[in-house]
Amino acid sequence: MASSFTNNEPEDGIMPAQHTKCDRSVEKIPYQYRSNVLVTTKGCLLLAFGLWLTTANLLAVQVYWADDEMHPGRILVANTVSPNSQQVIVHSDDFFPAQFTTPFYGLTVNDAPGGGKALYFGGGLPNSPNQRRLYRTDLTGETFNQISNLEVPVDKLEVDFVRESYYWIRGDDLRRISFNGDVATIDRPPSNNPVVFQGFDINFEDEIFYFGQNSDNVASGIQFVPLSEFDNPSPTTQTLITLDEILGVETRLDVNWLQVDTTLGVVFFTSELGNSSALFRVNEDGTDGKLVGETPLLGQFKLSPTENRIYYKPSGDDPWLDNTKIKAIDYLGNPIDFELVSDVFIRDFEIASVQSPTITSYSWAKTEGGFWSGGDWDITGFPDGNTVTVVFGDILNVPGTVVTDVNRTVKTITFDSEQPYNVAGHGKLFLEAEVGSSKINVIQGDHQFQLVAEINSNTTVNIAAVSSLSFNNALNLNGNILTKTGAGTIAINNLLSTNRGTINLVEGTIIGGGQIGGNLHNVGTVSPGGSSGMLISSIVPEPSTWMLLIIGILLGVTTTGMAPKSRCG
User: Fold this and answer.
1) CA distance 511 to 10
2) Residue 321: which domain range?
3) 311 pairs with which residues across the strands?
4) Phi, psi of 247 (to 5 degrees)
5) Predicted confidence (pLDDT) per residue in 106-123, tens digit
6) Fewer Cβ neighbours under 10 Å: the N or C end of the chain?
7) How far is it, in rounded angstroms, from Cα 283 to Cα 279?
8) What number of other Cβ atoms are within 10 A of residue 514's Cβ?
9) What is this structure's pTM?
10) How many domains does the chain have?
11) Quick one: 373 and 285 in the same domain?
C-alpha cells in the first residue's frame, strides 16, 4: 500500500488562494483552473493571481507558539517570512507569583471582545487539572486576562467567544464547557466496538464540529456534528467519510489530526504510516475524498489558508529535537523551504492570518541608487499610498538614482543627504494626502525629479538654505496650490501646468528654463534660469502687474513684500 502514497496533484488542482464561494448557502463549488483565471460553476470569475496578490498585501501570517523547558512558560510570535525574528509576547513571570511556574498550551486564535482576534490558551500545571485555567491575550501580548477558572485541556481546544464556551475532546466524549461552568458532552455511541475520538476542528461559520473517530473493529474516519447538538438530550453524530471509502480497501489506519480550511470547504487529515504520514482531504459536504500523498511524519499541524500551507511539528524518534521546530508543506504535500527553530521545547503552536500593520514611513536603505520596488527600503515592501512618508536620507556613498517605471503615490518626501538623489523613470510621482496637505522637504543637498510630478493635493515645498530641488520633467499642479518656503532654491526646467492652480512663492528662489502656464504669487525671488528659454520670460502676467514684473526683472529680483499675480493668457 505504501507505493500508492504519491504526491500527485489532485484532479481539481488547488492553486494559491484562488478559491471562492459565491454563496455560503449553496453547496461547495467545484472549479477549474484555466490560464490564470478561476471559473466556478456558480458564475464567479476571479483573476487568480490578482486575488492572491491582494490577499498577500492585506494579510500577514504569524506563528504563535508556547515553549516549555520546565520553567515558567512563554508565548512567542514570528511571521512566516522571517521565522528567526522571534518575539516573546507573554511570559508567565509577568503575571504569576515567582513561586508559581506554569506552562501554556492549547493555543487557538478566535474572535475577541469588541472585534478583531485574540489568542486563547490554557495555563497551569499539566498534571494538576484543578489548577488549569483559560486565558486570553491580544495578538501583541499587551493585554492578559483570565477567562475561566475551569479545567482546560492540555492539547487542543477551540474557543467560541459568541457562546462564551470552549470545546475539546476527552478521548471518549466531545465536550463543551461554558465560561460559567456549564458542561455539555456528546459521548461516543454505545457499542461493543471501542471507539476513540481523536483530533477535531470547528467551522464556526457553518457551526459544524468535525472530529476523527478511530476503532480497531470498524472503519476509522471523519465524523461531524452540528454545534446545536450539544444542547440536544439525545445528540447524534454523522459520518463524513471513512478511510476505507477513500482507499477502496479495508484498512487499519487511524485519524491522527485534522484541520478545516473553510475558504476551500475542505477537511485535511492525517494517518500515521510508521515513519511518514498519509495526508487526506475531503470536501465539507463529504464528496471528493482522496489521498493527497505521503508526507513527512506530521504531529500536530495547522493550516494557513492564505498561503495554502500546512505548518507542522515534526514527529520523530527524538522528542526533544523534533519538538523544537516547526516546518511546512503545501496543500499537495510538497515540502516548503521553511523552518522555525526554537531554543527550547515547543509545547503547542497556532497559525493566524492577521491584518498587516499599516506602514506609513519608508527610508532608503541602499548606499547607491536602485529601483523603487526593488526591496532597497528599511522595511519589507515599498512606499505607495497617500498616507506614506518617504525619506531619502544621508546613506548614499555616491549620487543615487531611484527608478520607478510605474506610477507611485506618496504624501511626504524628505531629502536629507549631501549626496544627490535623482528620482527618475517612466512612471509618474503623485503628491497626494489622504488628510491635510502634501510636503516635500529638502533638509540638505541638491536633488531632482526626472519623472513627471503630479500635485494632487495642496503641497508645501520647504527647501533649506544652500540646498535645491529641481523638477526636470513636467510639473502638474492639477488645480492645487504649491507653496514654496525655506531659503533654498526650486528649479522648474520643464513645462509647469497649473490647471487653475497656483505657485505661492513665500520665501527663497525659483529659477529654471521651464514655462509656467498659470498663476504665480510671489514674495520671494524669481531669477532667470541658465537655459536659453527663461522661466520668467514665459510667464504671461495680468496687465496690472506687467510693469512691476519688468522692473523686477531689470533689477534682477522681483519686488519683495509684494505679491504680483501672473496668469497665462
Assistant:
1) 67
2) 2-115+221-355
3) 302, 328
4) -85, -15
5) 899 998 887 888 999 888
6) C
7) 14
8) 24
9) 0.57
10) 2
11) no
